[in-house]
Amino acid sequence: MKLWGRMLWALLSGSGKRGGTRGWASSSWQPRLPLAGLSATELVSHWTAVFEKRGIPEARESSEYIVAHVLGAKTFQSLRPALWTQPLTPWQLQCIEELSSCRLQRMPVQYILGEWDFQGLSLKMAPPVFIPRPETEELVEWVLEEVTQRSHVVGAQGGPLILEVGCGSGAISLSLLSQLPQSRVIAVDKGEAAICLTHENAQRLQLQDRIRIMPLDVTLEGSWAHFVPWGPMDLIVSNPPYVFHQDMEQLAPEIRSYEDPAALDGGEEGMDVITHILALASWLLKDSGSIFLEVDPRHPELIGSWLQSRPDLSLDLVAVRRDFCGRPRFLHIQRSGPQHGCPTDAWPGPQPPRVPG
Ligand SMILES: C[S@@+](CC[C@H](N)C(=O)[O-])C[C@H]1O[C@@H](n2cnc3c(N)ncnc32)[C@H](O)[C@@H]1O
């Protein structure tokens, strides 16, 4: 399935109450005559027809999400039935028209609504920060299973110390933190907008005390040095940019026009950032520490061969999992042999300091 296909799945997967219409000023705008007095159901039909005529994917779902959002609900189905047939106010009609015109310009629904659910957390979304995809929830669930089942990934302070490379909106880090109450997370991203959004989402969810968010490009030489204050990691998790460069052109307009290409483009074989994460992991992970990666279906084989050509890293591909479409998309890589410290053997000591807020 193409990336937009997966975004569509995300579009269809929301439920319950969503944000509402705060922040939109009322004005003297009057709807064009044919729209005045229409109900929510009629508005959905109207905008579905407009979207279909203009070739907008998932026309009905898009219009339902927009109308529901303006009426203060997460999905159209979760609206009180009385609201389906009640005539909308001029202000509501204006809001719906404004949001629908964004959709006509192929803006993803998640950016239009400004928030989206991931693992039961409501996260703020803003372009160009990558929109979390539903399969990444499967990656998080795998990490949670492993942490729960395996005592050796539990850190000295009672919970694992986790590094996320490329945190985007903070979806992975914040859902791990919320479901592993003893864990601490270091989240890095090279994008300024991603760092700001992760900060904001951490504050919204009151998880800021257990996460350290740092701007960092892991492909830069010496990036390992930024992690020295925390000591060896129990776990590294990443949904890195992994799209093969030649596939970037084929991405849907929603993705190409609004999401940061640096979040997607993994270079010629989609491995540019992945190989740096693996090299970094070799230095940062404790003995038997784990890396969990989301990748392209061609990567399990490519990464397996790459690791065999780099025995110096002491990393083994121990398991591959398939996504809900049956494609091999998630990797568990484990460090074997004793942790050999940073290039300069610079770990401060056996007790890593507390991750500051
Ligand atoms: C596919 S997105 C994943 C975002 C988030 N983890 C999620 O799953 O929704 C990849 C993220 O990696 C970041 N990134 C790309 N290259 C990077 C690098 N060299 N160092 C650190 N972060 C990087 C991008 O800015 C982007 O936020």
What secondary-structure arrangement, pairings included, does this model have?
Blueprint: H1 3-13, H2 40-53, H3 59-70, H4 81-85, H5 90-104, H6 109-113, E1 115-118, E2 121-124, H7 134-149, E3 161-165, H8 171-179, E4 184-189, H9 192-204, E5 211-215, E6 233-238, H10 253-258, H11 272-284, E7 285-294, H12 299-308, E8 315-322, E9 328-335
Parallel strand pairs: 3-4, 3-6, 4-5, 6-7
Antiparallel strand pairs: 1-2, 7-9, 8-9
Helix pairs in contact: 2-3, 3-5, 7-8
The chain binds S-adenosylmethionine (SAM).
Region (Disordered): 335-357
GO molecular function: nucleic acid binding; peptide chain release factor N(5)-glutamine methyltransferase activity; protein-glutamine N-methyltransferase activity
Keywords: Methyltransferase, S-adenosyl-L-methionine, Transferase
What does this 3D model show about the protein?
The chain has 2 domains: 3-113, no CATH class; 119-335, Vaccinia Virus protein VP39 (Rossmann fold, 3-Layer(aba) Sandwich). It is 36% helix and 16% strand. It has 12 helices and 9 strands. The protein has helices spanning 3-13, 40-53, 59-70, 81-85, 90-104, 109-113, 134-149, 171-179, 192-204, 253-258, 272-284, 299-308, and strands at 115-118, 121-124, 161-165, 184-189, 211-215, 233-238, 285-294, 315-322, 328-335. The strands form 2 sheets. Strands 5-4-3-6-7-9-8 form a 7-stranded mixed beta sheet, with helices on both faces. It has a two-stranded antiparallel ribbon with strand order 1-2. Helix 3 packs antiparallel against helix 5 and helix 7 (134-149) packs parallel to helix 8 (171-179). The chain is elongated, with a radius of gyration of 22 Å. 40% of the residues are buried. Residues 1-29 and 344-357 have low confidence and may be disordered. The structure holds S-adenosylmethionine. S-adenosylmethionine binds at residues 130, 132, 136, 165-169, 171-172, 188-191, 194, 216-219, 239-241, 260, 262-263, 273. Residues 42-114 form the Release factor glutamine methyltransferase N-terminal domain. InterPro entries: DNA_methylase_N6_adenine_CS, HemK-like, N5-glutamine_MTase, PrmC_N, SAM-dependent_MTases_sf, Small_mtfrase_dom. It comes from Equus caballus (Horse). Residues 162-247 form the Methyltransferase small domain.
